[in-house]
Amino acid sequence: MAAVCAVIVAAVILSLGSGHRAASAGSSVSAGSSPAAPSVTPTPTVGNLQLSQLQAGDCLTGANMALNSSDPWPKLTLAVPCNQPHTAEVFLANDNFWPQNGPFPGASAISKDGTTACNNAFQAYVGITYKKSIYTWTNIIPDASTWPTGDRALHCVAYFSTPKQPAGATLNQSIEGSRK
To answer: Rounded to two decimals, what is the model's pTM?
Structure first.
């Protein structure tokens, strides 16, 4: 009996220790649907990353992101551990958000679908609705020029915009589950 209890306790401890990063907030969301339960995400990456390499939980730094503008996303973005100074955090990354077949649905439809998915993912990732949060977000979505090349990705990136730093104040920890 004691051996059975020891095995059960060990299994519980091991299961609690694994999957520590458990809130991707919709990394498998499809257009027009809301994220179900949060799913386990891989360990965030570090280094210079292309947009397609970003994943939920990545913390980003660098002035080249132009978070509060309509400039295109840079070819490379520097990802750092979230306990180091950074400006933004990816809370949804889906390279196949929109289906590959079919014509471009239009900028309005892409924007609406992206906004809905980012708002839902934000709430699941941060723990409160976007409207109640101190953070803001931007998304990276396909447009009429990138759609023909197969771009179907949706990336949602949160940051802390202040009057003095509208493109993002420095953060020193993850916003995941912060409820701020």
So the answer is: 0.73
